[in-house]
Automatic annotation (TrEMBL):
Residue ranges annotated for the Endonuclease/exonuclease/phosphatase domain, each copy included: 82-190
Name of protein: Endonuclease/exonuclease/phosphatase domain-containing protein
Molecular function GO labels: catalytic activity
A Pfam short name: Exo_endo_phos_2
SUPFAM superfamilies listed in its UniProt record: DNase I-like
Source species of the chain: Paramuricea clavata (Red gorgonian)
InterPro entries in UniProt: Endo/exonu/phosph_ase_sf, Endo/exonuclease/phosphatase
Lineage: Eukaryota, Metazoa, Cnidaria, Anthozoa, Octocorallia
Domain of life from the UniProt record: Eukaryota
Length: 347
């Protein structure tokens, strides 16, 4: 999220209800559309990047199915319907796909593209399961393609592919895949559209050389002395001489004083200190080990570290803003400036 600003962030099992306002789940730079279950669990939501024109298609949504439909344009003459969907494990398969069948048929008849993303609880790794068979029949009827190929949920005893990205036009996607994340045993999935330009606010990378002549002076001097500098005399143009000099000199520098690249983090969260970063790295290493070994003990270690990171992040963020509030005491202007960061209200 810090290095890439996606057009959409679709989430399932949001567990939101009427008592939770949009402000409480706001992501700066995005508006939100929700379809809450208003009971235990469930619910879907889509965050839409600011300034992207879209239309919520409430007429395509049904109260009995946890779906959310928005229409946008991939390009000027290419409208698309995006559906974020969640089918609970105990929800009957047939009526759910009957609903998707109706929406898909009407969308394609209108010469629109369709993208369906979400947790359908149809394991594409288990081709004999009734849910998967129903999914494949649905895909075949409308010539749709399911683009995710890797497992999206992994435990010590099983793997499954239930978080799906379905489209009528796979050629519109530059890339798709699964992101390895330590937040949950469900891994996020992604898709990058070819026709939509996105500006990535990536971390800045700087290149440096640590020139320590005391350590490598003799070896470096010998290497420089062995270069056939007379080669430059074959050229009259100063630019050509410079080019030859660089081609002769740079490889020697790379050997004795190699380039080192350092990433300068952008928009880092100020409440994340080195101790939290170490804990996050330990969590990620534990996750990789658990996925490799499939050991119950390794998964339990990973889960403990994941929960510890979550707890530490919440406390660190709370302590950070509490200190900021204390600093704002008696300064209304600074207080409201801080409030806009904590609760980024939209006009």
């Amino acid at each position: 999220m810090k290095s890439v600003k996606p057009l959409f962030i679709a989430t399932t099992e949001t567990r939101l209800n009427n008592g939770i306002s949009n402000t409480e789940v706001d992501i700066n730079g995005y508006s939100i559309e929700r379809h809450d279950r208003n009971s235990r669990g469930g619910g879907v939501a889509i965050y839409i990047k600011d300034r992207l024109k879209y239309e919520r298609k409430l007429e395509l949504e049904e109260p009995h199915f946890e779906t959310l439909c928005i229409e946008f344009k991939i390009s000027k003459n290419l409208p698309c319907l995006l559906i974020c969907a969640y089918r609970a494990p105990k929800q009957p398969v047939e009526p759910f796909f009957d609903y998707l069948d109706d929406v898909t048929r009407e969308t394609l008849r209108s010469d629109k593209q369709i993208i369906i993303i979400g947790d359908l609880n149809c394991d594409c790794l288990d081709e004999s399961a009734a849910q998967t068979i129903a999914l494949k029949e649905f895909l075949n009827v409308y010539k749709l393609t399911q683009l995710i190929r890797e497992p999206t949920r992994s435990t010590a005893s099983s793997e499954s592919l239930i978080d799906l990205l379905i489209t009528s036009s796979p050629q519109l996607f530059r890339s798709t895949g699964v992101l390895q994340s330590g937040f949950s045993d469900h891994f996020p999935i992604f898709g990058s559209l070819i026709s939509v330009r996105q500006k990535d606010s990536k971390h800045r990378v700087i290149s440096t050389r640590k020139v320590d002549l005391n350590a490598n002076h003799e070896c470096f001097q010998n290497a420089i002395s062995s270069i056939s500098w007379d080669t430059m005399n074959m050229f009259d143009d100063p630019n050509d001489k410079l080019l030859i000099w660089e081609k002769l000199f740079t490889p020697v520098m790379d050997i004795y004083f190699p380039v080192r690249r350092k990433r300068i983090r952008k928009n880092s969260y100020p409440w994340i200190d080195s101790s939290v970063l170490v804990l996050m790295r330990n969590r990620d290493q534990a996750r990789k080990k658990a996925l490799k070994t499939k050991s119950v003990d390794d998964f339990n270690i990973y889960k403990r570290l994941r929960n510890c990171v979550t707890s530490r992040l919440r406390k660190a963020k709370s302590d950070f803003f509490q200190r900021k509030l204390d600093d704002c005491h008696g300064d209304p202007k600074a207080f409201w400036k801080l409030m806009k960061k904590v609760l980024p209200w939209k006009n």
